[in-house]
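Entries read chain and fold; for instance:
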Amino acid sequence: MSYFRLVENRGALPALDGLRGIAILTVVAFHGVESFGMAGPLLPLGGFDLATPLYSGWMGVNLFFVLSGFLITHHLLRRWRGNVTRADIGQYLLMRWIRIVPTYYVVLLVAASGIVPYHVVQAEYLGWQVLYHLFFLQDYLPSGILGPFWSLGVEEKFYLVMPVALLIAWKLGSARRELAFLLTIAVLPLGIRLLAYQGAESLAADTFLRNWRNPFHLNLDGLFLGAACAWIYAKRDHFPRLRSAGAAAAFAPIGCLLIAGIILWQALAPGSRFLHQVALFPLTAAAMALILLGSLLRASPGSRLLESRVLAGAGRIAYSWYLTHVLVMHALWGIVTASVPGILGQPAALQVTVFFPVYFAVSLVTALALHYAVEKPCLILKDRVGSPRAGTAVFPARAA
């Protein structure tokens, strides 16, 4: 049945599904090995932990932000070619609600209900936690029901902000000024981080997440760099130097080298407060944007990999997989430790070797179940809602 096909229409930009697939695979891998490496090197070799790249799988979230910035802006630039009407704005908001909210609410209910074994939610103030999660405030308030939910708070706010930014950019009169406006927003988090930097501040996990990682305003860099990529791609005739063969071919390799440098910096200076409080996330966002822009403007040796059906399939279920994989991880680890005597006393490398394949397989099956039961019906409804509408113009928009 066509309903169960993950990869049907690849669209005009098939590399995007591949990048989304890479993003979810790195995040799933990161959470699958993160706790095992806390006591020491997981796969030591000559003083280096071979699992270090896996510990950097959190970068997949930053790649998601860049992709979201690109996709939302690309969508709006294609649809809002003439006058922007109230119906256009309402249609956009409804499509975003259908795409994100029902699937998220289902997982939120399951996570908060306590029915998943070994997933512990603090009972105190549970009603309050559920309330602010319903309104996507968990990037500023504790994401205590399920850790990955914080990024949904960031994404939802961006969906509200980007149309306003787009309409302001259109008033600036030239593609270069419009791009400069988007890039100015993208560098704001770096400025905020520099002003707030306190080298002596504790890097305890809750403090770090609350002050330096989760808040929406500190993630504007990835979102608006993605938006800038969409602007360059849509108006590439205005930026001949950026789309020249030499520049386009260099973007993705430079981005990959930057990521490698970040991973190495983390490995060599794990306690660097400047890295974690100031440089880490802006550099990661810039690297992801370069990789995306290079993939859009020029075919590269990695293009065939990005367009593979495996990565495309992972990309299509990325949202369901992202929402559920930590729930699965908690349940499985509890079951493994309860049913395999002595497993906690074994070397971490052995523990992860036993646990990770089961975790990966079960989380994948769970994601597929959520995708077909909840997410895909929402996608079908969103496409139906997305048909062109007529209405009264409230903003005159320039052609994309």
About this structure: Strands lie at 44-45, 48-49, 83-85, 393-396. The first strand starts at residue 44 and ends at 45.
